[in-house]
Amino acid sequence: MSLPFMDIFKDWASEYDNFVTGQDPEYKDVFVNYDFMIAQAVKYAKGDVVEFGPGTGNLTNYLLQQGLNVRAIEPSEEMAAIGEKKTGITFERGDFLNFKQQPADTFISSFAFHHLTDTEKDIAIGKYAELLNEGGRVIILDTIFNSEEEKQSMIEHYTSLGFNNLVEDLNREYYPLKETMESIASRNGFDYHDTQLNRFAHLQILEKKTIKKPFDLIGHTPMIEITAFPLNKGNRIFAKLEHHNLGGSVKDRLGLNIIMKALDRGDIKSGQVVEATAGNTGIGLALVCQKFDLKLRVYVPEKFSVEKQSIMRALGAEIINTPTEKGMLFAREEALKYAQETGAFFTNQFESPDNPSSYEELANEIIADVGRVDMIVAGAGSGGTFTGLAHYFKDAHKVIVEPEGSILNGGASGSHRTEGIGVEKWPDFLPKDLIDAVETISDIDAFTKVSELAKLEGLMQGSSSGAALQAALNQQQHFTNQNIVVIFPDASDRYLSQAIFNIKGE
Ligand SMILES: Cc1ncc(COP(=O)(O)O)c(C=O)c1O
Question: Any coiled-coil ranges, and where (predicted)?
Answer without folding.
Answer: none
